[in-house]
Amino acid sequence: MSNEDLKLKVAKEAVKLVKDGMVIGLGTGSTAALFIRELGNRIQEEELTVFGIPTSFEAKMLAMQYGIPLVTLDEYDVDIAFDGADEVEKKTLFLIKGGGGCHTQEKIVDYNANKFVVLVDESKLVKKLGEKFPIPVEVIPSAYRVVMRALSEMGGEAVIRLGERKRGPVITDNGNMIIDVFMKVDDAVELEKEINNIPGVVENGIFTKVDKVLVGTKKGVKTLKK
Ligand code: 5RP
Predict the structure, then answer these.
(1) b/e for 177-204, b at 16 or more Cβ within 10 A?
(2) Using a 6 Å cutoff on CB, does residue 25 contact ligand 1?
(3) What is the pTM of this model?
(4) Which ligand 1 atom sits nearest the alpha carbon of residue 119?
(5) Cα 182 from chain centre
(6) Least confident of 2-6, 148-152, 221-225
(7) Is there a catalytic annotation at residue 194?
(8) What residues are paired with 23 via a beta bridge?
(9) CA distance 9 to 6
(10) CA distance 140 to 159
(11) Strand 95-96 to strand 78-83: parallel, antiparallel, or no bridges (unpaired)?
(12) Cβ atoms < 10 Å from Cβ of 152
């Protein structure tokens, strides 16, 4: 069974948590995309009244494609947000997100949801955050050099994320740059705050407020809670 099969299993399980009348935070990435498709199917088949708040341009386009009516945080609170992750620390359920460069809007929606549910396949589970994946940091373009210096002073190896099929840096949905920081994460709660304290940083991809993680394994979908 491939990781893609496991992601689909998780998406199908997650969509069962949606109830009529809910406002749903729609995450970003390949796993969240499967969830959005499954949610669209449920809305059509069961004639549910459900609204979505997207966490990225990609999530917005998918929601429109699958017939999910969209609203904004200006008007509504989020009942449950469903989103993917790049790493999940098994013991704490802390995350690294932002592989798609969308962690700022993801954090705004996910942290403000009444419940935040994370959808991953088992390859995303790690003992310690930062094992496999760098911490993505969204940065105001004029500050990239000084932010990179500050991140290096904190012990990280900071690299500008470059585009594919586009020369130069990746530009986020918010018009900013992404600096990927390779570093050991000893205290995720402190590091999340410390990085955000650097002038010029918009948001970083450490997520420490998670309610539940659904993990797709070869033996079925497991639920991890704190
Ligand atoms: C995007 C994200 C994604 O949720 C994360 O990269 C996981 O993606 P996928 O489900 O494709 O593995 O944080 O910014």
Answers:
(1) bbbbbebebeebeebbeebeebebbbbb
(2) no
(3) 0.97
(4) 10
(5) 18
(6) 2-6
(7) no
(8) 51
(9) 5
(10) 15
(11) unpaired
(12) 13
Which neighbouring-strand residues pair with 180? Answer: 136, 159
pLDDT at site 161: 98
What are the strands of the beta sheet with 113-121, ordered from one edge?
A: 51-54, 23-26, 78-83, 113-121, 212-217, 220-225
Which protein residue has the closest C-alpha to ligand 1 atom 1? 100
Percent of the chain clearing pLDDT 90 (strictly above): 97
Two tokens, residue 99: 């592989």
For residue 211, give both structure tokens: 């309610």
Could you tell me the CA-to-CA distances from 180 to 70, 87, 91, 148, 186 in Å, in that order?
31, 14, 24, 9, 17
CA-proximal residue: ligand 1, atom 2 (nearest) = 98
Residue type, 70: L
Res 184 pLDDT > 90 = no
Alpha helices in the chain (DSSP H): 3-15, 30-46, 57-65, 103-111, 144-153, 188-196
Span from the CA of 175 to the centroid of ligand 1 (angstroms): 19
- For ligand 1, the distance from its centroid to the CA atom of residue 119, given in whole angstroms, is 9
Place of tokens 């709660």: 189
- CA 88, CA 152: separation in Å to the nearest integer? 24
Question: For residue 97, which atom of ligand 1 is closest to its CA?
Answer: 13
Ligand 1 and 216: CB distance under 6 A: no
DSSP H helical ranges for 101-220: 103-111, 144-153, 188-196
